[in-house]
């Protein structure tokens, strides 16, 4: 069967959160042990980017087949005890959509 309608969806999501604007996790010149422990975990500056693409084909009048891809790129600007969390992932998927 020939597809009568094909939809293409492209997207790009960007998040750049500066936290509270500090340039480092530890406060400059702090000597209080409580401040040294809790101040670094009170701000979470991060960058997140996620491009995506999806194509959808009409198989029957009320049935569509979808295939897509999404890339995840997450990065912290500074982390607790100088440990930076970050990850990259490619995710592919396929699905059927039924309208009733």
Please describe what this structure looks like.
- This protein starts with 5 loop residues before the first strand and ends with a strand.
- With 100 residues, the protein is mainly β.
- It contains one helix and four strands; from the N terminus they run βαβββ.
- It is rod-shaped, with a radius of gyration of 22 Å.
- It has a four-stranded antiparallel β-sheet, with no helix packed on it.
Short description:
By secondary structure, this protein is mainly beta. Helix content is 6%, strand content 54%. Strand 2 and strand 3 (63-76) form a beta hairpin.
| Extended strand count | 4
Q: Helical proportion?
A: under 10%
Structural class assignment: mainly beta
Mean pLDDT metric:
82
Sheet-strand content, in percent, reads: over 45%
Neighbour order of strands in the largest sheet:
1-2-3-4
Topology diagram in text:
Blueprint: E1 6-17, H1 33-38, E2 46-60, E3 63-76, E4 86-98
Antiparallel strand pairs: 1-2, 2-3, 3-4
Short key terms for the protein model shown above:
100 residues, mainly beta, four-stranded antiparallel sheet, 54% strand
């Amino acid at each position: 069967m020939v597809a009568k309608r094909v939809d293409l969806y492209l997207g790009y999501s960007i998040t750049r959160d500066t936290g509270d604007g500090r340039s480092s996790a530890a406060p400059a010149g702090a000597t209080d042990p409580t401040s040294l422990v809790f101040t670094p975990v009170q701000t979470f500056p991060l960058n997140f980017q996620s491009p995506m693409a999806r194509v959808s084909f009409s198989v029957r009048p009320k049935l569509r087949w979808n295939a897509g891809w999404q890339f995840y790129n997450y990065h912290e600007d500074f982390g607790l005890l100088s440990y930076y969390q970050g990850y990259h992932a490619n995710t592919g998927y396929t699905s059927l959509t039924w309208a009733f």
